[in-house]
Amino acid sequence: MSIAAVSAARRQRQRREKLEQARRKQSEEDKRKVKIWFRAFDTNQSGQLEAEQLKELLASKFPESPPSDTDISNIITFAKKEAGQSGKVIVTDPNAVGQDAAILAVAHYINYLEASKALNALMEKHDVSKSGQLEREELRQLMVEYAQDDVTVEEEDVDYILEQCDQSKSGGIRVEELLPAIASWNQIAATKEQAQKSKAASCCNSIEDQLDILQPFGIEAFSVILRLVDVTGCRIGSSVR
Questions:
Q1: How far, CA to CA in Å, does 199 sit from each of 25, 152, 186, 233?
Q2: What are phi and psi of 134, to 5 degrees?
Q3: Which of 17, 133, 142, 163 could cross-link 172 (Cys pair, CB 3.0–4.6 Å)?
């Protein structure tokens, strides 16, 4: 083995060791935090944080943006799912988190609040009528902003997003409906862009093939997006200001 190869292997090993040291340090810090949280909020000493106890913990850490009951339900679902996938211990109570999932719950809520701020800013930018929701033309402008230059926002696209994402039946898109609307439109726009590329690449496709490519995402595909949004807790609740 050459000297250069030996040096490269040594540097790689040192990087791995540093990463492992940082991981262990973070793990120890997480355990320290969890012990403090459980001493303060596990008032019945059950060894887990029940929904109301987790809500109190997050409200104490983020008094300006306390979580709603819906937020807590989503956070618990997400944290327990991720903890289980990581091989960590999870409690059997569906409305509570153990120590491992508690760290994930707090981390997720931090990300949740950051996403909330971004969506609130986006709503404020496009809600020019100040109606508290994106009216049809405001929604169309948002879709134009999120589309690639060669993707045209058609009236049928706006109709589809309103039909699928206006869960409140208010005739527009509210802030809690904004993330599903953006996710759905991104998927549709990507499909339309791919269709245009495919059409430009070959003039020999059959009419049936082109229609398959242009087929918009249906209810089943959109429901998958919504389930992903709900499971990860990204549906923004009214408690976030």
A1: 54, 15, 20, 38
A2: -90, 115
A3: 133
State the Cα–Cα distance between residues 215 and 198, nearest whole angstrom.
Answer: 14
Whether pLDDT at 234 is above 50: no
CA nearest 165: which of 123, 134, 132?
134
The owner of tokens 């993707």 is 151
* HEC readout, 108-171: HHHHHHHHHHHHHHHHHHHCCCCCCCECHHHHHHHHHHHCCCCCCCCHHHHHHHHHHHCCCCCC
Burial class (CB within 10 angstroms; exposed 0-12, middle 13-18, buried 19+) of 102? buried
End-to-end CA distance of the chain: 60
pLDDT tens track for 162-205: 999 999 999 999 998 998 898 889 889 888 888 877 766 654 44
Token readout for 179 is 């993330």
Instruction: Say how far apart CA 145 and CA 130 lie, in whole Å.
Output: 19
